[in-house]
Amino acid sequence: MGRMKFLCDAERCIECNGCVTACKNEHEVPWGVNRRRVVTMNDGVPGERSISVACMHCSDAPCMAVCPTDCFYKTEDGVVLHDKDKCIGCGYCFYACPFGAPQFPNGPAAFGARGKMDKCTFCAGGPEETGSAAEYEKYGSNRLAEGKLPLCAEMCSTKALIAGDADVVANIFRERVLRRGTGAEVWGWDAAYGGGERKQERKREGQS
Amino acid sequence: MSTRKLKSITLATLAGTALLGLAACSEVPQVTVYEQGEYRGKADTRPWEGGEFKGDRAAWEKALKERARGQNEYNRIQ
User: Fold this and answer.
1) Where are the beta strands (DSSP E) in A61-201?
2) CA angle (B62 as vertex; B47, A162 as ends), nearest 5
3) H/E element holding A6?
4) Residue A25 pLDDT more than 90?
5) Single pTM value for the model
6) Which residue of A lies nearest to B64 if distances are taken between CA atoms?
7) A91 interface with B at CB cutoff 8 Å
8) How much is the pLDDT for A162?
9) How many pairs of residues across A and B have Cβ atoms under 8 Å apart?
10) Is the pLDDT of residue A187 over 80?
11) In order along chain B (78 residues), what is the average pLDDT of each group of 10 residues?
């Protein structure tokens, strides 16, 4: 097995927030904690784009690198998980994560009062007995052990959010892009920092 | 106590004081050496070990792969 990854197709995401709701409901995530959220760029402007963001289960996860209690681990399938019993709620992982994935039940409180960190588990539970009440209470349901994919991706109505082995996910996206003849350009530098006129502007600035 | 003995005691005391006083002037290493951390939490079972797959990794991988491929609607409409 390779690496488990999420991929959100910005051409398809309609900002319905169904993935957010599904995640909240499946894991009974406490109030104030959002393991997944939908981010919209250029909201209200024609051509706006939305993507669903959660823990991206990085290959070289910065949260793992900064954790002072070493409570993070990576499964054989590339899913980044953590042991809540070891977590001291310091918040280092929150500062290190480029996606804002780590969440704290008590919100922005003082050190030691934030509570145990909570984040997307790729529906893979945590270091408790598979399917046990303790696992569900701390980490949510373990769909991966049931041979299922994360619920957010499985119930996505437009199949904008896809999950699974990186190879399979990449193949689905590649086929889509080839069929519709558009989409790959919405990723990368230009999508993040502006293409077209802004790119020309940057070029002019560079020349002058 | 002879003067010679007193002198040697004074000298030893002064040398000791100087040694203690200069101890803080030594160079302190300022380069941090980062150590690779290791997971210190509880061990977790692998997804195919517990539950319905009962250790059959191949069956689990097959189930997950089929599920992942099912996300491609082009497969379903063909």
Assistant:
1) 72-74, 80-82, 161-165
2) 80
3) strand A4-8
4) yes
5) 0.80
6) A147
7) no
8) 96
9) 107
10) no
11) 86 88 78 82 90 90 93 82
Compute the nearest-CA separation of A89 from chain B (Å). Answer: 15
Rounded to whole angstroms, the Cα distance separating A22 from B66 reads 22
Give the model's pLDDT for residue A68. 93
Q: How far apart are CA A85 and CA A107, in angstroms?
A: 19
> Cβ separation of B50 and A179 shorter than 8 Å?
no
DSSP secondary structure code for residue A30 in this structure:
P
Using a CB cutoff of 8 Å and minimum separation of 24, what contacts does B52-59 make?
Answer: B52/A145, B52/A146, B52/A147, B53/A145, B53/A147, B59/A147
Q: Do A163 and A122 form a contact (C-beta atoms < 8 A)?
A: yes
Chain A from 38 to 57: CB within 8 A of any B CB? none
The predicted complex's ipTM stands at: 0.81
Summarize pLDDT for A192-208 with one digit per residue, the tens: 666 666 677 777 777 65
3-state secondary structure chain B: CCHHHHHHHHHHHHHHHHHHHHHHHCCCCCCCCCCCCCCCCCCCCCCCCCHHHCCCHHHHHHHHHHHHHCCCHHHHHC
Alpha-carbon radius of gyration of chain A: 19
